[in-house]
Amino acid sequence: MARDPLSRQIIIAGQITDAISAGRPRALPVIAVSGPPGLLVRLAKDRTYSVSAQPDIAMPLVGDRVTLDLQVDGYQAANVQVVLTAADLQRSLLPVVLGGEPAEVPRYRNLPVTRNIALLPRPVALKGRVADAEDPADPLAGATLRETAPGPS
């Protein structure tokens, strides 16, 4: 099946969040996209992203794999893969007016595929001792420490 140019359409979109706070990551992510030719990735300040195909090159085919690699200071690297299905790439015609004349533009009606990405912070190791605030040289015996962040201890 040959690739055919279509009007620009977003094929994958989503939100990038901190996995613990569900808020925005502290730093701006760097996203690399790979897959079929002609993919563009855009990142907004609110940490939403979109991947689209350049209309003068081609749209992806069924079974094409799109890979997003994310790097963000303070977070573990993330790799997201999306395999486009026949349902994702189901075509329809969008009625429009071009130059005052009615026309129909082909589009994929089930796009964009939504992939929200929750970034995990880099692991932190803590080391130290528990001491009396009034006499820091005197360690406290039997002190108990408890973590409040989710994840392995």
Would you mind describing this structure in some detail?
With 153 residues, the chain is an all-beta fold. The protein contains no helices and ten strands. Strands 1, 3, 4, 9 and 10 form a five-stranded mixed sheet that branches. It is elongated, with a radius of gyration of 24 Å.
Which secondary structure elements does this structure contain, and how are they paired or packed?
Blueprint lengths: L9 E9 L11 E5 L4 E5 L4 E6 L11 E7 L6 E6 L7 E8 L2 E8 L4 E2 L2 E3 L34
Parallel strand pairs: 1-9, 1-10
Antiparallel strand pairs: 1-4, 2-5, 3-4, 5-6, 7-8
Largest sheet: 5 strands, mixed
What does the overall shape look like? elongated
What is the percent of helical residues? under 10%
Look at the structure and give the mean pLDDT.
86
Low-pLDDT stretches are 1-6
Strand content: 35-45%
The number of distinct helices, counting runs of at least 4 residues, comes to 0
Mind telling me the C-alpha Rg?
Answer: 24 Å
Q: End-to-end span in angstroms?
A: 51 Å
Q: Would you report the number of β strands?
A: 10
Q: What class do helices, strands and sheet pairing give?
A: mainly beta
The SSE string, one letter per element, is: EEEEEEEEEE
